[in-house]
Amino acid sequence: MEDVKDMHVFPLIGKSKPTNLYRKESPMNKTMSKPMGKPMGKAMNKTMSEPESKPANHSGPSTSKPILEYIALATIPLVLVLGNSMLVPILPDMQEKMGISRFQSSLVITLFSITAGLIIPVSGYLSDRFSRKGVIIPSLIVYGAAGVLAGLGAIWNSYTTLIIARAVQGLGAAGTAPIAMALVGDLYKGGKASKALGLIEASNGIGKVVSPILGSLIALIAWFAPFFAFPIFCVLALLAVIFMIKEPPKKEKPQALRAYLKQIKNILQEKGHWLIPAFIAGSLALFILFGVLFYLSQILEEEPYNITGVKKGLILAIPLLGLVITSYTTGALIKKNGTAMRWIINLGLLLMTISLTLTIFLSTKLGLFIGLLTLSGIGTGALLPCLNTMITGSAEREQRGMITSLYNSLRFIGVAFGPPIFGWLMNLSHKATFITVSSLAFLTLGLVFFFIRPKGELN
Questions:
Q1: Are 436 and 152 within 8 A, CB to CB?
Q2: Which of 77, 63, 61 is nearest to 240 (CA)?
Q3: pLDDT tens, 281-312?
Q4: How far apart are CA 240 and CA 162, in angstroms?
Q5: Strand, helix or coil at 301?
Q6: Higher pLDDT, 117 or 254
Q7: Residue 181 zone, left/alpha/beta (φ > 0; ψ -120 to 50; rest)
Q8: Residue 328: which of 378, 375, 284 has the closest Cα?
Q9: CA 288/CA 266 separation, integer angstroms
Q10: Sequence-ordered list of residues with C-beta below 8 angstroms from that of 193, at least 6 positions apart, any chain
Q11: HEC profile of 99-116
Q12: Helix, strand, or coil (residue 337)
């Protein structure tokens, strides 16, 4: 319920506690509550709270409007992923054409993600203080415009211009998908919220599936052409957000910065015992995913495979397809079932640990190696929608933007460090690479098993 008073003081995990259900009362409620002096009866309470608890009419029968909103919301993470993953297949070409090292090419992904990770909390605060769309719309404009500048840097053979443009793109990216996750929490409740979050994660995954193929196809025109492609997708997403999403109006005035930060601190103190492990698990999942994509993109063009172009893009898409299907299915099924979330999270990390461990010994046959990485992708797809639902529901609307932004900030940092660390580990050996990441997955499994323990139906 959007208007639950001081919801953040009670843990998300466990049984709900009785509380005054009104943060901001309607004029009728205020009038009736004064003479009575006590909470109204259960039936009257429920009747009078209904207009407050059904934001944007999304708890009623399904109509075309929520479907259009789903589509518009899905375009935001899709554009974000295209701007990053579509470049992965062209990194080896970039190294050759611009005369740069493997490490320098990895910075095209890393610098973008680090900048986004640092700025996301600021975007989260601005979205809480003003509006979600008021942050998303200018962010998409900056994101697309910087993409054009990056493409020009590639044409001019200016690595400096390219890197600066990618950093500016990171600034724009900070106000896109992370804020869309908070917007879902504003628009939908209960099962619809988990379904919408699953759709966003699936859209994120679909972007990762199609982007290597799309990047490889567009690169047939010119190796730098992908830089100019995703600004077009930005325009489409921008139009969808402007015309298809109606953001619920704020019911309270923005808090002063000190009071706002105090509320965030209270949430982290009360729920940090499971929020921080959840943040770490999400970050690690994206670290492994983008590290593996970088690893595959490099080795497929080397002996004995010599696979390039669209064929390479199709192979890169296989592990991501497993992630997409699992993300959408998980988001549609979990609803508010905390017990199911707990077991799905643990099983997802267990599957990642086992499959990544097996790649240490079974990497000589490409088909088997891709199959094991696909299993890891399925584990990631099971993990992320559960984390998204729990984290988005851990705070009220007034603080939700910051909480989801902190989470997404760590996810971006995971993306940032995946390619360069995998590149460094590749210089050591294949075994060193996958011993490291399978060990990290196992440690995260232990952390999650002991600290993330939701039960029953979540608030």
A1: no
A2: 77
A3: 999 998 998 888 888 888 888 888 888 878 88
A4: 28
A5: coil
A6: 117
A7: alpha
A8: 378
A9: 31
A10: 184, 185, 389, 392, 393
A11: CCCHHHHHHHHHHHHHHH
A12: strand
Structure confidence at residue 7 (pLDDT): 38
Size of the chain, expressed as the number of residues it contains: 459
Locus of tokens 């299907």: 325
Q: How far apart are CA 4 and CA 103, in angstroms?
A: 49
Position of tokens 């592990």? Answer: 319
For tokens 């669209």, name the residue.
310
Stated as kind and residue range, the H or E segment containing 210 is: helix 190-218
DSSP 3-state assignment of 293? Answer: helix
Report CA 27 to chain centroid distance, whole Å. 39
For residue 212, count CB atoms less than 10 angstroms from its CB and return exposed for 0-12, middle for 13-18, buried for 19 or more: buried
Residue 427 CB burial class (10 angstroms; 0-12, 13-18, ≥19): exposed
Q: Using CA of residue 27, residue 29, residue 31, residue 33, what is the dihedral sign?
A: negative
Cβ contact 174:122 at 8 Å = yes
pLDDT the model gives residue 329: 86
* Closest-CA residue to 124 (of 72, 197, 183): 183
Q: At CA 115, angle to CA 405 and CA 315, rounded to 5?
A: 90
Strand partners, 457: 337
Rounded Cα–Cα distance for residues 188 and 354 (Å): 36
The rounded distance, in Å, linking the Cα atoms of 56 and 249 is 9
Residue 337, beta-bridge partner list: 457
Distance CA 388, CA 72 (A): 19
- Cα separation, 417 vs 398, whole angstroms: 31
The whole model's pTM is what?
A: 0.67
Q: Amino acid identity, residue 61? A: P
Helix (H, G, I), strand (E, B) or coil at 449: helix
Structure tokens at 15: 């049984």
- Of these ranges, 129-133, 237-241, 266-270, 351-355, the one predicted with the greatest mean pLDDT is 351-355
Q: Are 9 and 266 in contact (CB under 8 A)?
A: yes
**How many C-beta atoms lie closer than 10 Å to residue 142's C-beta?**
19
Residue 49 pLDDT more than 60?
Answer: no
**From the CB of residue 27, how many other CB atoms can be counted at a distance below 10 Å?**
7
- Quote the CA–CA distance of 91 and 150 in Å, as a whole number: 14
Peptide bond into 11 cis (omega under 30): no
